[in-house]
TrEMBL record:
Top-level division of the source organism's lineage: Bacteria
Classification via PANTHER family: RNA POLYMERASE ECF-TYPE SIGMA FACTO, RNA POLYMERASE SIGMA FACTOR
Protein name per UniProt: Sigma-70 region 2
Span of domain RNA polymerase sigma factor 70 region 4 type: 103-149
Length: 160
């Protein structure tokens, strides 16, 4: 993928904005920081466009870059959100809100595979490739995340 035109960059942005935004929000849990991270991710695309040789893996590349941008922002700010819910609207009677709150409280190593598997529809092999871990490690992390969610939410609720 050598030298993008502004039209190509616009197409990539439109195609992957939602995914990049979701990944960044999962890390930062703050709308303003998330918007900055999304901007920085796409700026990295422009800066590093020569690293790309094909569009085949552009989504995986953008996810990885967005994760790194968020981690760098967290390190630079040396703070985490005080509330595990961030900007998520909470309705105590809603099972979905409860699951989202508990999901956001999971460590990143469990949260990211859950998001990629259930929200973006990737399989364990694809997730493993993106995160540079084996497919069996992905399945193990998904199982651990389900167990933690079940433990925190109570076994009477069906989770995932």
């Amino acid at each position: 993928m050598s030298d993008y035109s502004s039209e190509n960059i616009r197409e990539i942005y439109e195609r992957h904005f939602v995914t990049v935004y979701r990944v960044c929000f999962m890390y930062l849990r703050n709308v303003h920081d998330t918007e900055d991270a999304v901007h920085n991710t796409f700026m990295k695309l422009i800066e590093k466009q020569k690293c790309f040789e094909s569009t085949e893996h552009e989504k995986a590349w953008l996810i990885r870059v967005s994760q790194n941008v968020c981690k760098n922002m967290l390190r630079a700010n040396s703070r985490r959100c005080e509330s595990p819910t961030g900007d998520i609207a909470v309705n105590d009677s809603s099972a979905v809100s409860d699951v989202m709150i508990e999901l956001s409280a999971l460590p990143d190593e469990l949260k990211i595979p859950v998001y990629l598997f259930y929200c973006d529809g990737y399989n364990s092999k694809e997730i493993g490739s993106m995160l540079h871990i084996s497919a069996s490690a992905v399945r193990s992390r998904l199982q651990k995340a389900r167990e933690r969610l079940k433990e925190h939410l109570g076994s009477e609720r069906s989770i995932v």
